[in-house]
Amino acid sequence: MLNNFTPIPPPEKPFYKRIKNEQLQYGYLIRNLIRPLNNISKGIEKKTSFGEENEKDIFYIIGFPRNEDGLLFLVLCNLSHIGYALEHGYIPVIDQQNYSNQYLNQENLKFENSWEYYFDQPFKYSLDDIKNSKNIVLSNKLQMPNRKYTIDFNIFEDLRRLNFFRDLFKKYIIPNSKTMDYLITSYNNIFSGKKNILGILCRGTDYLSKKPGGHPIQPQPEDVIKKAKETMEIYKCDFLYLATEDQDIYETFKFHFKDKLISNNQRRFKQSDFINTDYISQMLNPKNSENYQLGLDYLSSIYNLSKCDCFLGGKTAGTIGVYLMSEGFTYDYVWDLGFYPLPSLYKTILKKINKNK
Predict the structure, then answer these.
(1) 3-state DSSP: the chain helix, strand, coil percent, rounded to 5?
(2) Which domains does the chain have, with CATH numbers?
(3) pTM
């Protein structure tokens, strides 16, 4: 059953006060113009029935195909749908079993829910528990159910909205016991005996090499290093915890910060690996546990960053995750550099043709 927490986001600021220069860029405008078309092409939510059980409850199954997105982006999408479900009196159940995603072991397709590799269900109901239920609502296939519950990259600038989603996150994004043990063990092994730590999330690889259209522009590593040195001096930080999937960036930070640099042992990639590849997900084998471990280490890095005293990062889903997990920082800074431009319509069509060959 639902508890008494009924989330209603605080009123948004008037659009003309919230609009920013990058929101007038070609890529941002195109994305918002095609949003109504997405609602049509990806369908609206659907009411159905699986049987006669649980007749007093309405279950909202959250499911959408996302093959190339990282774990924290999936978390944010599910969090958005959870908020929507609770407002409507539905019990959310997350389905990453019947919809493709890079973490689902393809050998176990239709048998395992990849959400449950890492997290518990928000209200402990699994897909199996509701398979004969009377009242079912299937979510639409959009990343976010509507604009009201959209978690965007301007959330850092609206403390009321950030606190709302932070509260929602801490109540309903629940690491399972195996994941929580891994997070705590990793944190203790890395941070034991250390204090005054600056955390940095520095994306590279496919972000810097491919500059994916419509995604936030990431700061250059040399700019992050300069800002890190200034922050460590001003706020007397003794260590720097670096979260990055980019081996080149890691080695550059190691050269500059030497023994002050700490990190986890996640797998890292070189930018040269992406000459003929667009996304990290395309380099992994969906038939083994590599994707699972990569997601677990990524989640561990986000958890560790949320425990640091200060924080620096670019606008990414991971950075939003850091803020939702954290209780706040002594000092924090997020680079706001706009968005990578979308490719021309001709290039987009050509890419789709080549992909389908």
Answers:
(1) 45, 15, 40
(2) 15-170 (no CATH), 193-340 (3.40.50.11350)
(3) 0.84
